Amino acid sequence: MVICVPARNEEAMLPGLLAAIGKLSGDMGALDVCIHLDDCRDGSAALLDQLAPTLPFRLTVAQGGRDGPPNAGAARRAAVAMGLALLADGEGLVFTTDADSQPRRDWIIAGRKSLIEAEVVAGRIVRTHARNDPQASRIEQYYDRLHRYRRSIDPVAWEARDTHHFSGGANIAIRASAYRMMGGFLPLPSGEDARLLDDAARAGLRVRRDGAMVVETSSRREGRIAGGLAGLLLALDQGEPPRMADPRAAAWQWRAQAEARRGFALMDRVDARLALGERLGLTADHILGVARDCPNDEAFAMRVVPASPGHKAMISLCEAEEILTGLETEWREMAA
């Protein structure tokens, strides 16, 4: 088992992370922690050299440097590569978090349990001092509601009962074989974590969002990448009103994915292909071609359904909440 962490000028945060890892409960066997120092200009390397002999786990540190701007995907990819090298091409569990984060004591226990049900698990991310950021908490609650609505109209057997919307690299666990199969985190400036989860689903892997696997992360406003949590919190501090995608677009897509999932087993029937094609605005031949390339219904549902043809405008958070309430009410009435 390996824990892989990218770090960029995190000298102040690393002791807290390592202390939290040292307190993790459960029988973890030989635990390796890999930290990739991404063009660090502070004292992180010296600090880790000093702390390594005192830690109850093996710490491996690598120095990385680039001439270009920060790249979260490249840094996380490098950190996980360190862990995979220690696994020596064998199977194992790979956990990743951030240097400004601290996993709760049962993090590994919860992750192991989830990885029995799925190949990839995204855990819940809790902000320290969240009470000071009520608008950010409101946004998170909205996205949690939206994801629960998704699973009400398109349920999957591997989803956790306590599910959530988070897809951040601060809290992801994955089987090493699944990570290798997909090619791993892409070297994207940001969003490499959400992209990994999307790619996993499109490959037909089971992606589970489990609220029992918790990591606490900082509420700082000075982030290491553009477009991250720190940037969102700073924008809210400055009074920038949040703009959301219209949930009706997501609802259309998720309903279509549910239909595609149910129809995958019927792809040998022309009438089934014609019906699904009419629903999605695609030809029956196109439907069949996608199905032939998919290992299971999850991959088919994720690949064949296009983006929603309507509701493309961005709207306010208040509008999004009201629309979602209507969608939830409609679904409850239909399910009654």
Verbal overview:
It contains 13 helices and ten strands. By secondary structure, it is of the alpha/beta class. An eight-stranded mixed beta sheet has the order 3-2-1-4-7-6-8-5, sandwiched between helices. The protein has a two-stranded antiparallel ribbon with strand order 9-10. Helix 9 packs across helix 12. The mean pLDDT is 92.
- H/E element string? EHEHEHEEHEHEHHEHEHHHHEH
> What is the radius of gyration?
21 Å
- Counting DSSP E segments of at least 2 residues, the number of strands comes to 10
Individual helix count: 13
Morphology call: globular
Strand order of the largest sheet: 3-2-1-4-7-6-8-5
**The biggest beta sheet, please?**
8 strands, mixed
Distance between the termini: 45 Å
What order do the helices and strands come in, and which of them pair?
Layout: E1 2-7, H1 14-22, E2 32-38, H2 44-51, E3 58-64, H3 72-87, E4 93-96, E5 101-103, H4 107-117, E6 120-127, H5 134-153, E7 172-175, H6 176-182, H7 192-202, E8 207-217, H8 229-237, E9 243-245, H9 247-263, H10 270-280, H11 284-292, H12 297-304, E10 314-316, H13 317-335
Parallel strand pairs: 1-2, 1-4, 2-3, 6-8
Antiparallel strand pairs: 4-7, 5-8, 6-7, 9-10
Question: In summary, what is this structure?
Answer:
This protein has 336 residues and is an alpha/beta fold. It has helices at residues 14-22, 44-51, 72-87, 107-117, 134-153, 176-182, 192-202, 229-237, 247-263, 270-280, 284-292, 297-304, 317-335, and strands at residues 2-7, 32-38, 58-64, 93-96, 101-103, 120-127, 172-175, 207-217, 243-245, 314-316.
